[in-house]
Amino acid sequence: MDALCGSGELGSKFWDANLSLYTDNPDLTPCFQNSLLAWIPCIYLWAALPCYLLYLQHQHRGYIVLTHLSRLKTAVGVLLWCVCWADLFYSFHGLTQGGAPAPIFFVTPLVTGVTMLLATLLTQHERLRGVWSSGVLIIFWVLCVICAIIPFRSKILSATAQGKVSDPFRFTTFYLYFVLVLLALILSCFKEKPPLFSPVNVDPNPCPEASAGFLSRLSFWWFTEMITLGYRRPLKEEDLWSLREEDCAQRVVQRLLEAWKKQQRNKTAVAFGKKVSSEGEVLLEGQPRPREPSFLRALLAAFGPSFLISFFFKLAQDLLSFVSPQLLSILIRFISTPEAPSWWGFLVTGLMFTCSVVQTLVLHQFYHSVFVAGLRLRTGIMGVIYRKALVITNSVKQESTVGEIVNLMTVDAQRFMDVAPLLHLLWSAPLQIFLAIYFLWQNLGPSILAGVALLVLLIPLNGLVAMKTRTFQVKQMELKDSRLKLMSEILGGIRVLKLYAWEPSFLQQVEGLRQRELWLLRKIVHLHAYTTFTWTCTPFLVTLITLGVYSSVDERNVLDAEKAFVSLSLFNILKMPIAMLPQLISLLVQTSVSLKRIQHFLSQDELDPQCVERKTISPGYAITIQGGTFTWAQNLPPTLHSLDIQVPKGALVAVVGPVGCGKSSLISALLGEMEKLEGKVYVKGSVAYVPQQAWIQNATLQENVLFGQALDPRRYQRTLEACALLADLEMLPGGDQTEIGEKGINLSGGQRQRVSLARAVYSGADIFLLDDPLSAVDSHVAKHIFDQVIGPEGVLAGKTRVLVTHGISFLPQTDFVIVLAGGQVTEAGPYSALLQRNSSFADFLHNCVPEEDEGRPKEDGRTVLDNAEDEEVFLLEDTLSNHTDLMDNEPVTYEIQMQLRRQLSAMSSEGEGQGRLVPRRHLGPAEKAVQATEARGLLIQEETVEMGSVKPSVFWDYTKAMGLWTSLAICLLYGAQSAAIIGANLWLSAWTNEPVVDGRQNNTSLRLGVYAALGMLQGLLVLVSALMMAVGSVQAARLLHQALLHNKMRSPQSFFDTTPSGRILNLFSKDISIIDEVLGPTILQLLGVFYNSISTLVVIMASTPLFVVVVVPLAALYLFAQRYYVATSRQLKRLESVSRSPIYSHFSETVAGTSVIRAYGRGQDFEAISDTKVDTNQRSSYPYIASNRWLGIRVEFIGNCVVLFAALFAVIGRSSLNPGLVGLSVSYALQVTMVLNWMVRLMSDLESNIVAVERVKEYTKTETEAPWVIAGSCPPEGWPQRGDVEFRNYSARYRPGLELVLKDLNLRVRGGEKVGIVGRTGAGKSSMTFCLFRILEAAEGEICIDGLNVAHIGLHDLRSQLTIIPQDPTLFSGTLRMNLDPFGSYSEEDMWRALELAHLHTFVSSQPAGLDFQCSGGGENLSIGQRQLVCLARALLRKTRILVLDEATAAIDLETDNLIQATIRTQFETCTVLTIAHRLNTVMDYTRVLVLDKGTVAEFDSPSNLIAARGIFYGMARDAGLA
Asked: Among 1192, 1515, 1336, which residue's Cα sits nearest to residue 499?
């Protein structure tokens, strides 16, 4: 280098220590300034160029037009090039003039000139690639300015010293160069306009990050706008920015799906590469097994590149973190050397500050990058699981319940998001440990090996703990799945549990699972306590052993401040990777469990799309099955076998047969929902499907009918007319815009079925598969629908229709009848042909038809309806019959109507009216006004978002749940352990200052002993506090879950009708999971960093009292940043929490309706809906991540200021300070940056997570029913003996402030009487039965059973002595035995007898497991008819004195119906039977009939007397053809 500088004006020295270091006025040699200093920016730009050009190659956003800014930047660049080359030509000029300029005067101008030209060209290239703010060039200009500052000062000093300028030309060109470089830097800080031809951003609220400049991105300044808004007022959903395109769910999921499909293709390719072996052939052992598709590889392929960028950030940050200890070493040496020039101290201080600031900026870029990658991981995984759930087979569906699949989406996908930020520790931790040990070796020599040995010993120990934790966590996840599965079923069947008083049995089941879950949790948190202890003590033990060995190996090993505190700061760096590794291991362990679960689910069997051939078919036919054998699961016997069916195009085919013979299975086989074992299925044309149980979405009625198709008003109107929905629309508050609740809760069974049918009709498909759609509606409505829709004259005439039905009256109008029995076609042919054969079917028809004729008038004998309006009134009656009693006599506010209708429709009959003609109800003007204003009201209550800060009472609730003394003890113990560690470090400081006598320090063993004792005390205190926290957090988890569960089991039915089950499930999964696993560790960490930061400030102020001056402003800034941020962060977390529930509600809804979604081919639309809901959730998650970065940079800047002032004041007051104190003070200050950042993060995490306690508490305090059992007020043994039921002056209303629905009822039913309850719409039939079970409470008066007022006894004492056969047959997953008798109070003989009487004996005894036959969730593996029979068996088993029958024979064929009626007549002969009758023929032989009208008793006498009296009952009987 000296040769380059040559001789002459520059002299030949490149470096002169006397000029640059050992002086009070330092400077660099002219040679150094003109060479290396000038080249630094050039080297940077040329080094960055290849990577940057590659990046620009892949980034094309359209080009930016040539603006004034762009022109100015180019002009400045060209001028700089000219200035540099002017220097070059000046040197050539000197050469021609006979001078001998040094070679450096040719090299440097040439290099800088070419680099300036490059920078100018790069500016233009960036413009053409659409880059509006260039980070690469900003850094280049910054380096240029920094490197020019030293010559700037030198030239002025030199000119001043000499009294003249030695080289005026170069002097002038340099200052021109400096001004231009400064100008270029200023210009590069401004961003260009957005590029042309980029996709037009029509987004009303785009994310400002996309258009932010480099500096704004670097400091996260672009986020300030939202932080300010959140500080001024709580954020709302509409304030959130839209997602960037690359973060949208659809893009992310697509990437992952492609990678996963590639994995699956690889497997199939490997599998097909082998020879297919015949069944008997044994595969050769040496053959390679097909490689399982790896979900991990798919994740790496999809998201690996984004982790690569963060790799470079992390590497830079790790290397920078080791610069500070080296600078600390120089600072201590400076303090120890009084004669050293002062500027050394200030330079080291400046470098420390600069290094810390750069480290902060790089670290937060890294965090932003990995957290966003984690968010994408979660989005991708949720999308892939959703798409898989749409195509899994039924056997997989039974194996993985909705609860389990939802758990995959909630807990398991979240685990990936949690582990993403820590993944880099896998390489970063070993790197940091290696570097720390290297520098420690430099400092303390081989003594460090003792510390390293301890570290190495601890690794297998921590590994062992992690393995143990993993085992427990796997078991805990299984239990959590089981608990959520059970909770999901309880919420689905809560009405049945209440009516049967079965809550305690299910409560016990949940608590049993929870108990086992907590037992495992207790073990896990104890292991965590051990981990906390090890990683708190490890750094100290390593320091202790190292220093102990160092001082005892050789007496002449003197421990001075530099060695001690540089080692200490290196040990502090070492603390982080050692602390994080166990956390990473445990998270990796949990994630690997989740990975296996997700991979297992994604590898499950899918429905074979080729199972049904849709392209070819024999001419003239729409559906053909040839030799078809089908099963629901490979391990089950075939449900349908040897089917040969041909359905001509445009034919109407009826499928009939007894309960459980496979009618619904046949429809499923045609849809491709069953697994085909052999044969061929051909279905030509688009398909519409109406399932037996209507599947209704939580959307408006119109959306349910359109089902994703465009609105054609005429077709839509025609569809509603044909499906008899117009009358319903008049009743619904928002017409067809009324929102329908989850599972269609605010529609009656008949309405749901008609909406489901309307969806099929509107779809305009070629083939209609109708699975018993007429069963849920009344006979006259069934006839209307058959005539208008399905039959030869209906809107579907000419289309191919396959109708499963129990309605015999329709068979004559069909083209073809298929009779199924035992899964096979026993007979098939036209109706007339089947009647002529002397087969079992013909006998069955001959037996049933006369009875049918009595029960249902023939077309010609029926009262002819005068006009269409009358028919509509007739249908309106059908609609309203179920909607109970309040319709005519209550103020019609929307909210009241909906609340009541929901309670009622859900509980009352699902069947429909008696077919009585009623005048159409006209609304009064006031009602119309109310309806108009409320018409758009929504049904499901929006989930509330708490505003403002979390109330202190929430923290207090959690503290009380943990135990007050426990909480207090934990805080005090943490304070004590901080005091112990400060004591240990002060002792170390004193040790380093001990004078050296004869080359050694005295009292070494005493110093070491006290240091060890203080460190051990700290470890012990940490262990005790961690164990206490473990005990407290498990206790809190137990109490909070218990309170929530007990409250929910005691919540009134109305609560479940207005709260989506997804929301309640979210409480039991996500929120309880946070309370179980997150809150405890967060509080422990927060206490740790809080005491750490306090002790740092104490130590610095004790060492350099001058620091007190800056503590107050820094603390004020810190608190301001924290308050400013927390308001936004907390609200974002709440919005994220609230936007999560709809994802899972929609998912549960989708899983329930997969067969319908697939039948209509709407899978892709539903995927898009799910993606939109996930995006809504991401819109709050993404800013939450950015808010943490915004805060981190600002808080760490305050921490960096602490470092700056601690070092600065040490330099200023060096005369009065000893090196030991400076070392202590600055090494503490170096930790404070991380500590302050962690503290705000943990405080906001705690606030965000404590919201789980807030929500759980909120739902724990909801209103409950009356007590289940009232001590001292139990009914006598054997009550009721007679079964008398008496209503005395009884009135009831749905809620205080509403009108009465039952008014002053006075009636008595004697024990053993059979009473039918009938009445027009709004009469109060359903309400009366609810009052009997106290689902509704009395407003006045009383109900007495055997003379005992039911209000005086507990709900369970009452409900357990009544029996109801509800209309909706609900079963729970578990054995049949449990479904019949959850309390285990009946003998096996009793159960078999009940099953025999319920006509289920044959079915159950044919099952290998008998009574232990496993019913799947909701009884899915039984037909609806069989489920109804199980409900009958329950009633037969309880055999209470009073039976309420909500007539529910719709899903059962006529033969079985007759058997049930006969069973009820014989088995309940001595019991009081109250039947809500929908078909009058069932109550014609009852003792008495109660006719209700507007909530009062209108008539109450025997059927014959009532007919003779020619009152209301006579009119109803006449309409039904019975009078």
From this structure: 1336
- Tokens for 1377, please give them: 């035995």
Task: Return phi, psi of residue 1295, to 5°.
Answer: -155, 155
Gap between the Cα atoms of 1130 and 207, Å rounded: 20
pTM above 0.70, yes or no: yes
Cis peptide before 1280 (omega within 30 of 0): yes
The token duo for 766 is 């070629």
Residues forming beta bridges with residue 625, ordered by sequence position: 645, 681
CA atoms within 13 Å, Cβ hemisphere of 1199:
28
What residues pair up with 770 in beta bridges, in sequence order? 690, 803
Q: Kindly report the number of other CB atoms within 10 A of residue 1471's CB atom.
A: 20
Please tell me the distance from the alpha carbon of residue 1519 to that of residue 278, in angstroms, as a whole number: 68
The H or E element that residue 533 is part of is helix 503-553
Dihedral sign from CA coordinates of 546, 549, 555, 556: negative
Find, among 561, 26, 572, 16, the residue nearest to 331 by Cα.
561
Give the Cα separation of 639 and 650 in Å (integer). 28
What are the residues whose beta carbons fall under 8 Å from the beta carbon of 327, sequence distance 6 or more?
A: 348, 351, 352, 355
Tokens of 268: 């199939």
CA angle 262, 265, 271 (to 5 degrees): 150
Per the rule left: phi > 0, alpha: psi between -120 and 50, beta: everything else, 1319 is left
Ramachandran region of residue 1353, left (φ > 0), alpha (ψ -120 to 50) or beta? beta
Helix 964-992 vs helix 952-962: crossing angle, to nearest 10: 90
Beta carbons of 1235 and 1092 less than 8 angstroms apart: yes
Asked if 369 and 314 count as a contact pair (C-beta separation under 8 A), the reply is: no
Rounded to whole angstroms, the Cα distance separating 1392 from 423 reads: 59
Which backbone phi and psi does 1002 adopt, to 5 degrees? Answer: -85, 175
Q: Mean pLDDT by 10-residue block, N- to C-terminus, for the chain (1523 residues)? A: 59 66 76 82 90 80 77 88 85 77 82 90 83 84 89 84 80 88 88 64 75 86 90 87 86 91 76 45 45 84 86 92 90 85 89 92 92 91 91 80 80 88 90 90 86 81 82 88 88 86 89 92 90 80 86 79 83 77 78 90 85 81 88 84 87 85 88 87 89 86 88 89 82 79 72 88 89 75 83 87 83 87 85 78 62 36 35 38 32 34 34 32 33 41 58 86 89 89 84 72 80 88 90 92 91 79 85 88 87 86 83 87 82 84 85 87 89 90 89 89 88 82 83 80 80 88 87 84 88 76 87 84 74 86 88 88 82 86 87 87 85 81 81 86 73 66 83 81 84 86 88 80 70
Task: Count Cβ neighbours within 10 Å for each residue of 853-866 and write b for 16 or more, e otherwise.
Answer: eebbbeeeeeeeee
Query: CA of 244: how far to CAs of 158, 721, 1200, in Å?
Result: 55, 45, 33
Q: Which DSSP string do the residues of 695-747 spell out, in sequence order?
A: ---SSBHHHHHHTTSPP-HHHHHHHHHHTT-HHHHHHSTTGGGPBP-GGGTTS
Look at phi and psi of residue 1278 and say left if phi exceeds 0, alpha if psi is from -120 to 50, else beta: left
Q: How many CA atoms lie within 13 A of 1168 on its CB side?
A: 5
Please report where in the chains the tokens 């019991």 appear, as a residue.
Answer: 1471
Positive or negative, the CA dihedral 1207, 1211, 1215, 1216 is negative
Of 1130, 1244, 1144, 949, the C-alpha closest to 414 is 1144
Three-class SS state of 1400: coil
Q: What share of the chain is helix, strand, coil (3-state, %, to 5)?
A: 65, 10, 25
- List residues bridging with 1293 in a β-sheet: 1300
Please tell me what DSSP assigns to residue 802. E
